[in-house]
Amino acid sequence: MDLSGLSEVESKVLNQLQGVVDPELGSDIVDLGMVKAVQHHDNGHVVVTVALTTAGCPLRAQIQRDIRSKLTHIPEIDTVKIDWTELSQEEKSEVMARARLNISQEEAVTQIPRTAKSIMIASGKGGVGKSSVSANIASGLAERGFTVGVLDADIWGFSIPQMLGLTGRLEGDQATRRIKPIEKQAGSGILKIVSMGFLIDEDSSSLNWRGLILNRAVRHFLEDVEWGHLDYLIIDMPPGTGDVQMGLAKMLPRSDMIVVTTPSTTVQNVAARVANMARSYYLRIAGVIENMSYFINEQGEKYHIFGEGGGSKLAGELGVPLLGSIPIDENVSRGSDQGNPVILSEGQASQALNQIVDVIVADAVPLNKIDDCTAFIEQETAVDLNK
Ligand code: ADP
Asked: How far apart are CA 134 and CA 119, in angstroms?
């Protein structure tokens, strides 16, 4: 695209579009040369022309959503129209060459298969139920037959092993010199879990670890774990925005993020900061989950104990969907304490969590349907530059 003569607003649009990654090719649509034109009109209307590898590619819906969500941040823009075209054969070859080059130049080498969808579960503060949501979503996905990696990156407050009812030690594979995740069958699927909890003896000893070392530990989890095939990778992030979070955002630039908040305005404000950090690394925010939304007593009366509306307000602010609201339900904490995630049983919270998992699979973070797109260039295995 010819960049000369772009107005200030059009440059802002292009800048934001650099954060829209083609899920199939793994690079942003500007870098790949898929953005063909940006036109801003004085009445706040902007028209973006995007050329796709194949016009009928089902990933178009996701690209469209991402473009719209990125452009809501530009105050001068009121309405957005996206014109779709198709790349010519020659352009397609150039785009593929560019995507391959980008893959080969990627700095971080992770063992996460490139076809896996990684979802960071993040929150502004601790105690909002981020780990409970992570453990339940992972179990719900596995129950639906997916192979799900769980990376417990909440190094200080790791709770995933307890919530999934697991003990054990991570061991290395002599032949590959890689760490093997702890595996657990869930429904017809499988969970593959790594956590600090499988490495250290005393919960309290983790508290002495500091930023750099922690960041390195998380790097090991990405680089040296033999994940094998994964459909989804659920990452239980530490709360807030620190070294570990930024390290992960850099290493997993194609990750989606789901932000967990409670209905309280204070929590909602700090959650917005996490989302903004993610966006500064061009991560895609897939949606917001409101936890501890309300309590329903035995008489069926509903109480909004922590306030009302924080989740939908945050989602609106971020221009992303509210994926669901989870009630306060003692079965959540009991399930976590007993290592039986509530999503696999009955009750209000289980129902809400199951609906959220359905939304994730169907719409918010669907797996790439690679058969439908001719441009697919990824292999199941990661590109390892050290080999
Ligand atoms: P975080 O990871 O954000 O620090 P946790 O998932 O550890 O939060 O949850 C904090 C506590 O709240 C845990 O004891 C957990 O069992 C409980 N909890 C989380 N969500 C709910 C809920 N919807 N209803 C009841 N208890 C919950």
From this structure: 9
Q: Do 202 and 253 belong to one domain? A: yes
User: pLDDT digits over 246-266, tens only?
Assistant: 888 888 877 899 999 999 988
Distance 122 CA to ligand 1 centre (A): 13
Task: Report whether residue 259 contacts ligand 1, using a CB cutoff of 6 Å.
Answer: no
**Which CATH number goes with the domain that contains 83?**
3.30.300.130
- Domain ranges, residue 77: 8-107+369-377
Q: Give the mean pLDDT of the chain.
A: 85
State the pTM of this model. 0.76
Please count the structural domains in the chain: 2
Pair 213, 328 in one domain = yes
Q: Are residue 356 and residue 373 in the same domain, yes or no? A: no
Cβ–ligand 1 contact at 347 (below 6 Å): no
Q: What is the pLDDT of residue 379?
A: 39
Supply the residue whose CA is at minimum distance from atom 12 of ligand 1: 129
pLDDT band at 328 (very low <50, low <70, confident <90, very high): very high
β strands within the chain, DSSP E: 35-40, 45-52, 79-86, 117-122, 147-152, 171-173, 178-180, 182-186, 189-195, 232-236, 256-261, 284-291, 295-296, 302-303, 322-326
> Residue 154 CA: which ligand 1 atom is closest?
2
